[in-house]
Specification:
heterodimer; A: alpha/beta; 8-stranded parallel beta barrel; 11 helices; globular; B: alpha/beta; 3-stranded mixed beta sheet; 31% strand
Chain lengths: 252, 202
């Protein structure tokens, strides 16, 4: 049986790894190369690296991405500041398997169509940040004030129609809280698309992974805090469940 | 020396890295003299079938590959799209494949229950002894990413099978000096490293 993927997400800011809470208050975790090395030794399923400053700075840190990819003997995805096919090409050529596109897709989904034609759907993840509005309804969140016409579900359907291979749903309200994913919105999204959905934002315990897979029908689960913090005082400790723990979790 | 064929399809840097980590030497190339000089060849690949075949032809590699594989009988390992290109044809495209292997490539039927592409770590069911599967202490797991799968007409070449929902397909084949794997050994930790070591030892 194919076990669902369990994916650490590392946030880059400059040359450091940080962890946010509700997309704010970035806390320094450590050196990214070192963190990725440890995750590689722990034989993680896959890793996602998101540069949270790249879009604002209009700069992609290719050197660091290349160094990180060199430490990964598992698939690595990179997201942050990607706006063109040329940039995707360069990122893939330095050893990255998949790219995650967020703002550029909100601006114009054509980039997704062109990228998936050229690099294959399975190389292209569209990342969608979601946040509840005042009325408790989920909307697409973006810090860059891009005007968005579609509602969340229509947008997810369009992402699939334009050829993306996966959707990464990142829940702003849940980010860094470790209080569990919002399982219902994830379920609604997976019911509306035929491509894999990766849950992100809120994971605090292994059972959250299981519920996101079994109830929400996500194909993969991602987490930040859970894999970089330890204990109730949130001491920094890179950790990842063993294969046996994951097997027991998903098979029982 | 292993020649990793660069035909502009996919992330080949990681294949080279894993070969080196496995104790081998590799060169990423699309020059005929490199391919002619190499002892072994790897045909990697991510992307679309027709793009792959078109690029192989555009880089003038078709004749040289046929010569090295079918006449000189050099060992070749096709990975993912590279494996699929070794077959006759694919539902993904209109062009003929390299046609070294009597098999065809089909698409997973997508639906709410069957998310396509298949992405993730999976076990393989080894069908028979094969040099690529030597020296495993435990049942190996590999990383798969694909929307299309190989269906072989020739049962005798199937060395491993995998499943995705109800579909049982060929995840590894071998005919003479030609090896193909649907999964990505270069991204499969120690299991992938062992497979590449096995290929180096052939």
């Amino acid at each position: 049986m194919m076990l669902p993927r369990v994916i650490p997400v590392l946030l880059l800011k400059g040359n450091g790894v940080y962890k946010t809470e509700k997309f704010k208050n970035p806390k320094y975790i450590g050196d990214p190369i070192n963190a990725v090395k440890i995750f590689n030794e722990k034989e993680v399923d896959e890793i996602i690296i998101l540069d949270i400053d790249a879009t604002a700075n209009k700069q992609i840190n290719y050197k660091l991405i290349e160094d990180l990819a060199g430490e990964c003997f598992m698939p690595m995805s990179y997201g942050g500041g990607i706006t063109s096919i040329e940039e995707i090409k360069k990122i893939i050529s330095i050893g990255v398997e998949k790219v995650s596109i967020n703002s550029a897709a909100l601006n114009n989904l054509e980039i997704i169509k062109n990228a998936s034609l050229q690099f294959g759907s399975s190389t292209i993840i569209v990342s969608v940040d979601i946040k509840k509005n005042l009325f408790g309804k989920y909307e697409i969140y973006n810090a860059n004030k891009i005007k968005i016409k579609d509602n969340l579900i229509d947008y997810c359907k369009k992402i699939e129609a334009y050829g993306a291979g996966e959707i990464l749903i990142n829940n702003v309200d849940k980010d860094g809280t470790m209080t569990g994913y919002d399982f219902n919105i994830l379920k609604t999204i997976t019911e509306n698309v035929n491509i894999p959905v990766i849950a992100c934002g809120g994971a605090g315990k292994l059972e959250d992974f299981k519920h996101a897979i079994e109830y929400s029908k996500c194909s993969a689960v991602a987490a930040g805090s859970m894999f970089v913090f330890h204990g109730k005082h949130r001491a920094v400790l890179i950790n990842y469940p063993s294969q046996n723990e994951l097997k027991n979790l998903f098979e029982h | 020396m292993i020649a990793i064929v660069d035909y502009n399809c996919g992330n080949i840097g990681s294949v080279k890295k894993m070969i080196e980590k496995s104790g081998g030497k590799a060169i990423i190339t699309n020059h005929l003299e490199d391919i002619n000089k190499a002892e072994k060849i790897i045909l990697p690949g991510v992307g679309a079938f027709d793009t792959g075949m078109t690029n192989i032809k555009d880089f003038n590699l078709l004749e040289s590959l046929n010569e090295n594989i079918l006449v000189k009988k050099k060992p070749i390992l096709g990975i993912c799209l590279g494996m699929q290109l070794m077959t006759l044809k694919s539902e993904e495209g209109k062009l003929n494949g390299l046609s070294w292997i009597n098999a065809e490539v089909k698409k997973f039927p997508a639906g709410a229950d069957i998310k396509v592409p298949k992405i993730g770590w999976d076990y393989i069911t080894i069908q028979k002894d094969n040099p690529l599967f030597n020296n495993y202490q435990e049942n190996p797991r590999f990383y798969f990413v694909h929307s299309y799968f190989v269906e072989s007409q020739d049962e005798t070449i199937i060395t491993a099978r995998s499943k995705y929902h109800h579909i049982d397909y060929t995840s590894a084949f071998n005919k003479d000096n030609i090896y193909g794997v649907q999964f990505h050994p270069e991204k499969s930790h120690k299991f992938g490293m062992q497979l590449l070591k096995n290929f180096l030892a052939i």
